[in-house]
Amino acid sequence: MAYVEVRGLRKAYVTRRGRTPVLGGIDLALDEGEFIAVVGYSGSGKTTLVSLLGGLIEPDAGEIRLDGVPVTGPGPERGIVFQHYSLLPWLSVRDNVALAVDAVNPGLSAVERRRITDEFVALVNLTPAAWKRPRQLSGGMRQRVAVARGLAMRPKLLLMDEPFSALDALTRATLQDELLRIWGERRSTVILITNDVDEAILLADRIYPMTPGPDAVLGPPIEVGLPRPRQRRHMSLEPAYQKARRALVEFLRSCLYRSGQAATTEGGMRQMRAGADTPEPSTVA
Amino acid sequence: MGTKIRLTPQMILPVFGAACVLLAWALVSTVAPDLPSPVRTWQESRRYILEPFFKDGEMNQGIGRLAFYSLVRVGKGFALALAIGTPLGFLLGLSPRFHQAFDPIVQFMRPISPLAWLPLGLVIFQKSEPAAIFTIALCAMWPTVINTAVGVRSISQEYLNVGRVLKLSRTRMLTRIIVPAALPYVFTGYRLSLGLAWLVIVAAEMLTGTPGVGGFLWQEYNSLVYSHILLSVLTIGAIGFLLDRLMGLVEARVRIT
Comparing C-alpha atoms, which of B61, B43, B85, B54 is closest to residue B197? Predict the structure, then answer.
């Protein structure tokens, strides 16, 4: 049995106007230390998937098992890096991270917990800003704090919900490189949710394309054959990169032709442009 | 702006507004013979303002001294209102059951006038001072209760999710997430409560005849010294304005952090 196993996960939102089926049976499996990405159009239900995996909402059907244990609610063994950072604005950078460290290490001494907190703040290069409040930080720095907090939970599985989508292209590239470095050092098990094809290829071992909703499902996984450690430079020239990208874009496009409505969404249009056949240096640092 | 202080519309217009009201007052005083004009009011009130802390008798004291008595009384009532209102607001916001049980009562008690509570306070406490404080607290606490409850209920799900993922204990959830997130609302409630407490003081002092700005006002009405009614009214307005500004500063501080 795989380390993380997701079977037949379904979720629909019921509102007064009716029932909106979002996820129509998600299957997913990954081993310990794997980094996978789920790529899909905006509005296809990616955040719903993260919330389900995180245990923040209940599925209508299906099950999630982490290390053999069924997921029934939220818990720090499944750390989440939220799309909008979700930092607590009344706490400093350090205290935001310390909140996580203190919560998952109740047995340790205060000195030891302080040391771990400092370590994670340093890991994301925020030691000079440790006493600043989130509102004094740029978007990139805020997301670094959120990453540090997610890692500081020492989760068995780290969930990242479009972590860099709100950042400008240059900052996004820097943070992707940093994540690549950190992951290289720690080999955590990560599920990255994104709508950026290049981000997924750069970071993940395997990519699951997601069909546009309603009733979104995951397409056949695409292995990224790029060796690690990876470098952003020259990556786009590698045959393995081009192969993965072509497979991903072709799948996502074929979904669009099948279900006309997604093509009219703004996200769909953006994705079409990002998915041009010739690889372009869209996010080169 | 240069080194010279220039008169801007922001500085001139409030003065203009005050001048209009003074003019209207002066005009009305020519028609209503018992209403003292602004000039007469000043002449008859000078001593109370220029020597604000003199004391000739229980009810004949400088306006500063009278205002101090009132402020102490309001301070006690306001403190009591916060001490009861804040936890009540948190309970209403946190527990749907508590809300179902007690929200109707809150809505029912809220519109009851201080004039109705005060006699009840006198019946319960037998003395005017605790009755006045009881009335102030009971009338002033509702904005704190309601704003706190609303503040707690409108905490962003984002923040609560952080606490859920970390499986924070109830106390840590409260101290690290719920209280800080609700604090700006709580302080808005405090500011409104303080305004109400000051509003109630006049009624409370009038009915109980205790020394203070409100008590003085009522006594001078009975002694036909109408200029002192105006003096009291102006004092009440000025102090109310200052209190609101002070609380506003505190509120702004909380909002930033």
Answer: B85
ipTM for the complex shown: 0.83
Cβ-proximal residues to A154 (8 Å cutoff; 6+ apart), any chain = A76, A79, A104
Q: Which residue has the tokens 């071992």?
A: A205
- Nearest Cα residue in chain B from A80: B165
Residue from A90, A104, A135, A154 to probe the interface with B (highest B Cβ count within 10 Å): A90
**Domain assignment of residue B81, given as a range:** 60-256
CATH of the domain at B150: 1.10.3720.10
- Give dist(CA A258, CA A243) in Å, integer: 23
pLDDT of residue A229: 82
pLDDT tens across B125-152, in order?
A: 999 899 999 999 999 999 999 999 999 9
Contact B168 A88 (CB under 8 A): no
Residues B71-117 have pLDDT tens digits of: 999 999 999 999 999 999 999 999 999 999 999 999 999 988 888 88
Residues from A contacting B (CB-CB < 8 Å) are 54, 56, 73-76, 78-80, 82, 84, 86, 88, 90-91, 99-100, 103-104, 133, 153
Fold category of A1-70+195-253 in CATH: Rossmann fold (3.40.50)
What residues of A are in contact with residue B177 (Cβ under 8 Å)? Answer: 88
d(CA A146, CA B4): 50
Number of structural domains (chain B) is 1
Closest CA relative to residue A82, chosen from A171, A147, A33: A147
* End-to-end Cα, chain A, rounded Å: 39
How far is the C-alpha of B84 from the C-alpha of B144, rounded, in Å?
9
Q: A240-250, pLDDT tens digit by residue?
A: 999 999 999 99
3-class DSSP assignment, residue A144: helix
* Minimal C-alpha gap between A132 and chain B (Å): 11
Contact A90 B168 (CB under 8 A): no
Q: What mean pLDDT, rounded, does chain B reach?
A: 90
Tens digits of per-residue pLDDT, B56-78?
877 788 888 999 999 999 999 99
The pLDDT tens digits for B187-245 are: 999 999 999 999 998 888 888 888 899 989 998 899 888 999 999 999 999 999 999 99
Flag residues of chain A having pLDDT under 50. 261-285
C-alpha dihedral over B198, B204, B208, B214, to 10 degrees?
40
- B166-175: average pLDDT: 93
- How many Cα atoms sit within 13 Å of B6 on the Cβ side? 5
Give Cα A186 to chain centroid, integer Å: 16
